[in-house]
Design brief:
Strand content: 15-25%
Structural class: alpha+beta
Length: 630
C-alpha cells in the first residue's frame, strides 16, 4: 500500500538527486570552459556562431524571435500554470501526480540552471546579439532547458495518456520545440553550440529525476478510479464483499496470481473489488516468489475446489495475472492448452504483452475492460537450449545485447524509473563485441551472420510504440526474428533512425496467415534493412547457435548463459480475455482447448475448426455498466 512514508521517501529522493544533477552540470560546464577542452572546441564553436550570424534574414529573424519568446521565462511560467490548472481543474482530469510532475520539472530545471550559471561564468559568443543578453552565464541555455522541461514533460504525459494516431502526432510536435528553440538561440547569437547541448541535457535530466520521484511506481488514474467512485456513490464499501452486477452470473473459480511488489495492497483491493463487481466472488489468491514465479497456480488448477459437493467440483476457468511480463509468462506456461482463460493485469516495468494486445496500462482499467470483452486465442513460443529447460513465452526471447541489458538493469532504478532504467543499463553495453551466429528457419539451410543480439518475438512492439519486429502478431501462427548488428556510429544511427521512423508510420497491416500457411520464401531467406544493421527472419521453428556462450532472456527474465536457442510456436494455445481482438487484423474468439493436466495431454491441433463455447467453461462475464442509481 502507498503510505505517507513511501511519499516521504520519494520526496527525499528529489533532495538527493537534484544536487547530484546540479553537480553534474557544474562539472560539465567547468570542463567546457577549461583547457584543453576549451582550446579544442573554442575555434570550432566560434566558426559556427559566425556562420549563423552571416546568414541572417528578416523571415528567420522573426521565426527565431517567436521561438525565443515561446521559451522565455514569462511564456514558460504562463504555459506551465495553465497546464497545471487544466490537470487539476478540468472535468475528468484531476491528476495531481502529473500536475506536480510538470510544475516541479520547470521549477527544478530553473533552480539547477541558476546554480550552474553562478558556478560557470562563460561569456556569450563574440557576434552581434539579436536579444538583450541577461547577466547570466552562456552555459547552459536556460531557454532550451526550460523548453525541454515544459514541452518534454507534456510529451511524456501525452505519450502515457493519449491513444491512437493523435498520440504520436502530439508527442512529435512537442518534442520538436526544444531543438527548434536551440537553433533559434544559436541563430540569434545568444549561445555556443555546447550551451544548447547543456540546456538539452539539463532539461532531460530534470525530467528523469522529477519523473522518478513523482510518476514512477504510481498507479495512474482512469476508468478504474471512476469505477471505484461509482461503487462508493452507490453506498457500497469497496473493501467489502458485494453481490454481482445485476444480470451477471456467478461462474467458476478465479485464481489471482499476485506479484507482491508490483501489485501492492491498494491495487490488490481494487482488483478484488472489480472481480466481485463482475460476478466473480470465488477467488483464490496466490503470491509469486523467486522459486514459484506463478505462485501455486499449477497445483490449484489441478486440484478440485475445496468445500464443493458432488461428483463434478467447480474447476478454475479464469486466471488473473497481476504482475509484469515475467509473471504473465509463468502463468501462460501453466494454462496454455488447458482451455483456462488468462487476464493480464499490467503491473510490471515493461508490460509488453499488454501493450501489444491493446490493453490499457492502468491495471484496474485493464481488468475491467478484459472482463467486459471476449476470449481470443493467441500464440505462445516454446524455447529450449543448452542448460535451459523447455519453457513457454508470450513476448520475446533473446540473447546478446538485450539480455545483458536486462541482466544489468538495477532493480532499484527499475522501481523508480520504470522501463527507462533499461536505457542506463544499455549504455554500458554499447561497445560489447559482436559474435558469430547461425540461424535455421523451418528446417532450411543454416545462415551465418555476426550480430550483437538476436531476438525471437511472438509480438513486436516495444515501449514508446517502437516496432522492433514489424508485422509480428500474437495470432499469426509464426515467430519473427531480428538480428541486430550496427557497425560503428553510422550503423547505430541507421538502426535507430529506421526504428524511430516506424513510430511515425502506421502499424503494419499485412494480411494474416493461418498457422499452417508457409512463410514467404523471402522471409525464410532473411531480409536486411538499415544498411544491414537489422536482419529479419520469420517462421514456425527457429534454431539459433552462437560461437560462444551469450547472456539469454525470456520475457524480461534472465536465464543461464548458453550457445543455443531453439524456439517453436504453439499457434492459438493461450486463451486471453481481451476487450477487442489483438492487432489490426480480426481474430475469432477462441474456443476452449481440451482440458489437460500438467502431466499429459496436448492442446487442440492448429487449424482445427472452432467449436461452440460451452457455457460452463466460458462464463458470461459482465457487460460494462454500473449499478442502478450510481
Amino acid at each position: 500500500m502507498t503510505t505517507q512514508r513511501d511519499a516521504a521517501a520519494r520526496r527525499s529522493g528529489l533532495l538527493v538527486l537534484v544536487p547530484a544533477q546540479a553537480s553534474l552540470m557544474v562539472g560539465l560546464g567547468l570542463l567546457l570552459t577549461r583547457a584543453p577542452v576549451a582550446d579544442l572546441l573554442g575555434p570550432v564553436e566560434d566558426r559556427a556562431s559566425r556562420a549563423f550570424a552571416a546568414y541572417r534574414a528578416p523571415v528567420a529573424d522573426a521565426v527565431s524571435s517567436w521561438l525565443s519568446v515561446l521559451a522565455g521565462t514569462q511564456a514558460v511560467v504562463v504555459v506551465t500554470l495553465v497546464c497545471v490548472a487544466a490537470l487539476l481543474v478540468l472535468p475528468g482530469s484531476r491528476r495531481w501526480a502529473e500536475a506536480v510532475f510538470l510544475g516541479a520539472s520547470v521549477a527544478v530545471q530553473s533552480a539547477v540552471f541558476l546554480v550552474v550559471t553562478v558556478c560557470v561564468q562563460r561569456p556569450r559568443p563574440a557576434v552581434p546579439h539579436l536579444d538583450a543578453a541577461p547577466p547570466t552565464s552562456s552555459f547552459p541555455s536556460g531557454h532550451v532547458g526550460a523548453s525541454v522541461a515544459l514541452f518534454g514533460g507534456l510529451a511524456l504525459l501525452a505519450l502515457t495518456r493519449l491513444r491512437g494516431p493523435r498520440r504520436y502526432v502530439t508527442v512529435v510536435a512537442l518534442l520538436l520545440v526544444p531543438p527548434l528553440v536551440g537553433l533559434s538561440r544559436l541563430y540569434r547569437g545568444m549561445h555556443h553550440p555546447t550551451d544548447v547541448v547543456g540546456g538539452l541535457v539539463n532539461g532531460a535530466l530534470t525530467l528523469l529525476v522529477v519523473g522518478s520521484v513523482f510518476l514512477a511506481g504510481r498507479v495512474p488514474g482512469g476508468a478504474a478510479d471512476d469505477h471505484g467512485r461509482r461503487r462508493s456513490s452507490s453506498g457500497a464499501n469497496p473493501g467489502a464483499t458485494t453481490g454481482a452486477i445485476p444480470g451477471v452470473l456467478t461462474a467458476g473459480r478465479v485464481v489471482v496470481v499476485r506479484h507482491p511488489h508490483a501489485c501492492d495492497d491498494r491495487l490488490a483491493g481494487r482488483v478484488r473489488a472489480v472481480l466481485e463487481a463482475y460476478g466473480r466472488p470465488d477467488q483464490r489468491w496466490t503470491p509469486t516468489t523467486a522459486e514459484q514465479p506463478c505462485g501455486e497456480l499449477a497445483a490449484i488448477c489441478d486440484a478440485p475446489a475445496p468445500g464443493r459437493a458432488g461428483p463434478a467440483p467447480a474447476r478454475v476457468d479464469l486466471v488473473v495475472a497481476c504482475g509484469g511480463d515475467g509473471t504473465v509468462r509463468a502463468c501462460a506456461d501453466v494454462v496454455a492448452g488447458t482451455g483456462i482463460a488468462l487476464v493480464v493485469v499490467p503491473c510490471g516495468t515493461g508490460n509488453l504483452l499488454a501493450r501489444n494486445l491493446g490493453l490499457p496500462l492502468d491495471p484496474a482499467t485493464a481488468l475491467e475492460e478484459a472482463l467486459g470483452g471476449d476470449c481470443f486465442g493467441i500464440d505462445v513460443g516454446r524455447v529450449r537450449g543448452d542448460g535451459l529447460e523447455a519453457t513457454r513465452f508470450t513476448v520475446m526471447a533473446g540473447a546478446g545485447f538485450d539480455a545483458a541489458m536486462v541482466r544489468d538493469a538495477s532493480p532499484r532504478l527499475k522501481a523508480r524509473l520504470g522501463w527507462a532504467a533499461y536505457l542506463l543499463a544499455a549504455a554500458r553495453h554499447l561497445r560489447d563485441p559482436r559474435t558469430r551466429v547461425s540461424v535455421r528457419v523451418d528446417g532450411g539451410r543454416r545462415r551465418r551472420h555476426r550480430a550483437r543480439m538476436v531476438v525471437v518475438g511472438n509480438v513486436g512492439t516495444l515501449q514508446g510504440g517502437v516496432e522492433l519486429l514489424p508485422g509480428a502478431r500474437a495470432d499469426s501462427g509464426r515467430l519473427d526474428v531480428v538480428l541486430f548488428d550496427p557497425e560503428g556510429a553510422a550503423g547505430w544511427l541507421a538502426a535507430t533512425g529506421h526504428l524511430v521512423s516506424r513510430v511515425l508510420r502506421p502499424r503494419s497491416t499485412e494480411p494474416r496467415r493461418s498457422a499452417g500457411q508457409a512463410a514467404d520464401p523471402a522471409e525464410a531467406g532473411g531480409r536486411s534493412v538499415a544498411g544491414g544493421a537489422l536482419t529479419y527472419y520469420r517462421g514456425r521453428h527457429i534454431d539459433i547457435r552462437f560461437a560462444g556462450a551469450q547472456p539469454r532472456e525470456i520475457d524480461g527474465d534472465t536465464v543461464t548463459d548458453g550457445r543455443r536457442l531453439t524456439v517453436e510456436t504453439e499457434p492459438g494455445a493461450l486463451r486471453v480475455r481481451l476487450p477487442r481482438a489483438p492487432g489490426p487484423t480480426a481474430v475469432r474468439p477462441a474456443a476452449p482447448a481440451p482440458r489437460r493436466t500438467r502431466s499429459g495431454g496436448a492442446p487442440r491441433a492448429a487449424g482445427a475448426p472452432d467449436r461452440p463455447v460451452p457455457s460452463d467453461v466460458l462464463a458470461p462475464l459482465a457487460p460494462r455498466h454500473t449499478r442502478s442509481g450510481s
